[in-house]
Fold each of these.
Amino acid sequence: MKAIFPGSFDPITNGHLDVLEQASAIFDEVVVVIATNTNKKSLFAPSEKKRLAEEATAHLPKVKVVLAPNSLTVQVAKKLGAQAIVRGLRNSQDMVYEQDMAFINHEMAPDLETVFFMTTARYAHLSSTMVRESAQLGGDVSSLVPECVQKALHAKFSAKLGDRK
Ligand code: ADP
């Protein structure tokens, strides 16, 4: 069975990887679908997000990464021949939002199931936003993101931090 894991991934974090590791144990193939039509302002360009996601998931042979410009999640799933949408849950706030999304997607594509994975407790407070903000202020994010992302964040922000000194 094939699943997609859609999201912004700006950037991919250890929380996303935790969900992907859990999903890999159940599905035959999991495609990380990087949405590029999001209203959220992005730090990383789509091509950078894709490269980082590919590098971070190199140890997971069932995981592939694609970019999805201006597409509905259900349409991407159909195009890729996936039967399930994977989403991660951190807390009850995620649950409320994700439930609405799952209902809407089910209305549009009744044969597509949304499957939720609870995050490991230590990643329950982790978000890409928190990582971007910490890294921008020079914080240590090494326990929150894969090494390639840590390097990419450092490259993005070190020039700016240098300017402030
Ligand atoms: P989106 O803009 O779709 O929320 P994100 O990249 O922020 O994109 O998240 C993609 C998916 O990964 C969502 O289902 C989100 O709940 C989940 N996710 C994000 N961070 C974590 C985490 N720390 N633990 C588990 N799931 C997470």
Amino acid sequence: MAVLKIARMGHPVLARSARPVPDPCAAEVRRLVADMVDTLNEEHGVGLAAPQVFVPWRVVIFHVPAERGEGAVPFTVLINPEIEPVGQDMTVAYEGCLSLPGLTGAVPRATRIRYRGLDLAGQEVVREAEGFHARVVQHECDHLDGVLYPMRMRDLRTFGFSEEVRRRLAEGDDDRPSDG
Ligand code: NI
């Protein structure tokens, strides 16, 4: 187990589509996920995708901490995930990313989604999600297609350094940025 180096925006590994994992039960996949969990915990993030640690595989991990106050989701591994929106509602909220340290921006995402993927035992995980949970899964799965959150933003005036934006939002907006 190890804390891995995180690729930052501009590195080509973040701009490429990642490859499907042929065998989710392989020992190397288990090792990768263990290292990704260590890395995410070290960075206090909520989600991480394999390309962010320079591994071009379709693997993401995430959790929703209880402190968010909208239903905790335990640490989840998704291998070869697929997402579909449920309905047409979109929600705009601030996001951060460990590959863009110190920055945040407001990103529109589908409010509700259905997602599926495989866990480390090769079992299918199928869930419906909304709100922050749905946002994290969409953010992480975007990494597998070379998409970073600024590419989804509609209003670049909301893009900025987290410290500055937090200060502004402290006036009344409770859309807290969170690193995914
Ligand atoms: Ni990210």
